[in-house]
Amino acid sequence: MANERLFEEMTKAVIAGLPDKARELANEALHAGIDPLAAIEQGFKPGMDVVGEGFARGELFIPDLMMSSKAMQEAIAVLEPEMMKRKQHLQTLGKVVIGTVQGDIHEIGKTLVATMLAANGFEVHDLGVDVSPQQFVNAVREVNADVVGLSALLTTTMLNQEAVILTLKEAGLRDQLKVIIGGVPASPEWAKEIGADAYAENATEAVEVVKGLVQA
Amino acid sequence: MRANYQVNATTQFRVLSDDQIEEIFHSALNVLERVGTRVYGEEGLALLRDAGCLVSDDASASSADALVRIPSWLVKEALSTAPERIVVAGRDRRQRVILEKDKIYFGTGSDCPALIDPYTGEVRKYTYEDVYNAARISDALPHIDFHMSLGLTSGVPVHTYDRHQFLAMLQGTSKPLVITAVDKEGLADQYRMACEVLGGPEEFAKAPLFVVYIEPSSPLSNSIEAVEKILYAAETGIPAIYTPCTMCGATAPVTLAGGMVQCLAECLVGVVLAQLKRRGAAVIIGGVQSAIDMATSILSYGAPEMVLLSAAMTDVAKWLRLPMFSTAGCSDAKVLDQQAAIEAAMSVTIAALSGANLIHDVGYLESGLLGSFDMLVMSNEVIGMAKHILGGITVTPETLAVDVIEQVGPGGHYLTQEHTRQHFRMELWFPTLMDRQQRRGWEASGGKTMAERVRAKVKDILEHHQPLPISAEVEASLKELVAHADERHRSKAGER
Ligand code: B12
To answer: N or C: which end of chain B has fewer CB atoms below 10 A?
Structure first.
């Protein structure tokens, strides 16, 4: 029963987007010897679902989403060492490597997509901006990525989305992962033309599309 | 005789008090001194270090960038040598913008990926021809005082697109220009082209043909391209706009005052860099300041926050005695609809009232993704209305018209008064696109909506307007300069 009360509070802390509170509750769970995985699955995660629905209904906004996801991430960080000890693994939906392509320093759109993916259960590796094709390839190898996300905001740099795909092919990695592109000059047609698997117009759509990609 | 009589020759408008401005300025100094700004590139870093900035080389050795803390006295010193007035003149040297306190000028924005084809209605990429046509439209509109490309030329080499674009702009209009440049080399090439058009660097020095638009990256970062461009501009005598696109709530604080503090700090880095390179170098501050839309994540170009921030930053710029680059005549709407008209009217009016110097982005739809000929032409009309309001009300014995009122007397009319005939052309505003017909007249003339009338005018300009030609000889050498740039890049790519 006590567990259930704690789980409820965890859910509430995520809904309200309170990272400090979430960390505190995660610690409390550790002290009480509660299974960390259960704390995440039954405590914190249901909060994210509520917030996601609220956003979809237009009742909640980006900062609500961001703060909730931060609360969730921080709770996981507290619980992680204990999960390692127990040899437990958080079920992630997949590993995503994301970045803004070479020559392009537009950052915030890519960051939004990365944060939303992380909030929705993906393991996300954000390489930042002005990322060369080789850097993408290296990161893909290193983390064994399932999905690569390529952001480009300029008609002049969107060509580098294609360059990454070609470099992935040369490295023999293209067939073992999915590529999704985004950013204002990109389009579903452009995705097709350069041999990407998908395109998404914004961060919320990106979550749905990437979920589809890893299930396929 | 009379005493203590004051006249408002224009409307009066202001957002911030002197005390509030000073507080924003001091906060920006505080940020630069304590938080600092990230600067990329050896030359800029060396200048800042030698001038007394605290430079922490905490970055990797491979990329020359560092966190720079700029002392307040250095900013103040830079402000004391940055010119408070700039004159820019088009290749028709009579077409001038005189950037002095409270003198307003409107112009387009640059580099949109797409346009709506005026003939097919299709949304498609900008071509060279479209960039040329955008310039011709600005050229034809009386209330557009300076021109930015509106669209980004596709179909030309990507590393030298700026030179091609500049050529298209030069061909299309003889008005003053604001250009963008890929990098320092692109700026240098465009400077050479401008000197070719004007007949030499002396003529450019007398009144520059263009201002270059350079952007720091919020929050508080200065890319190597931005730094190299402003240093080259300062050295060469090219006036530089050094302004960010701050998104309150995403790349700047969500509180508008905080957004202004950061935006101002970012602009001041440009002022300092330019003065360190060459005292007296012309820098323009301001920028696209708006908020992220918290439901869709776009940077809104139609938000009331953008309008308010632009006007408030104009107050700050005037107080600092620096020319101001403001934003108006743009919208988040996807086509020229009621939303576009509302957002254009709101932003143009307030920007005009604020007294900003270069008010840009006229013609932007879809938050800066669509450079619309329709929006440009419609906004020209809005600007005309706003300018009429700015003129305020002339109060003299002649305009008070007490004699005329007496002559007409109760129950008479003013239609046959000489006073009416003498003054109506000056006192009243004459629409060119607003429809004021009665219903039957309107129906008889086709019952056209504003959007339809606007489109007709766009086509009329495209089909008839001839810009001042460039001599065949000059045009040939401009094309040669562009071809050289392409060639240089091709051989560089070949080496790699
Ligand atoms: C802010 C901004 C900047 C800032 C960026 C600061 C930063 N740290 O990020 C600064 C001032 C530095 C900048 C610089 C430049 N910019 Co700029 N910039 C913008 C602006 C105004 C907003 C972009 C933005 O942040 N939007 C908000 C975010 C949240 O949206 P978003 O990026 O679109 O991302 C969403 C979706 O696209 C999608 N998405 C994005 N990435 C990904 C990735 C994946 C995998 C997926 C699935 C989805 C996805 O989801 C995101 C969230 O919903 C746009 C105009 C516009 N309307 O886009 C111009 C714009 C993109 N810039 C433009 C230009 C030209 C430039 C410059 C070349 C200017 C110059 N001449 O010097 C430089 C280039 C610098 C460089 N090398 O990259 C042009 C591009 C035109 C073109 N034809 O390509 C635009 C359209 C403006 C314009 N009309 O001139 N810019």
So the answer is: N
**Any bridge partners for residue B288, and if so which?**
B245
Cis peptide before B219 (omega within 30 of 0): yes
Please give the C-alpha separations between residue B170 and each of A143, B167, B467, in angstroms, as whole numbers.
51, 5, 10
Which CATH number do you get for residue A181? 3.40.50.280
| Total domains in the fold of chain A | 2
Closest CA to B111 of B286, B231, B288, B252: B288
| Closest ligand 1 atom number to CA of residue A204 | 53
Same domain for A61 and A110, yes or no, is: no
Determine the residue of B111, B115, B130, B232 to mutate for testing ligand 1's pocket, defined as the one with the most ligand atoms within 8 A of the Cβ atom: B111
**What sign results for the dihedral spanned by CA atoms B137, B139, B144, B147?**
positive
Superfamily of domain B83-390: Trimethylamine methyltransferase-like (3.20.20.480)
pLDDT in tens, chain A (216 residues): 478 999 999 999 999 999 999 999 999 999 999 999 999 999 999 999 999 899 989 999 999 999 999 999 999 999 999 999 999 888 889 999 999 999 999 999 999 999 999 988 899 999 999 999 999 999 999 999 999 999 999 998 999 999 999 999 999 999 999 999 999 999 999 999 999 999 999 999 999 999 999 987
Residues from chain B contacting residue A184 (CB–CB below 8 Å): 113, 369
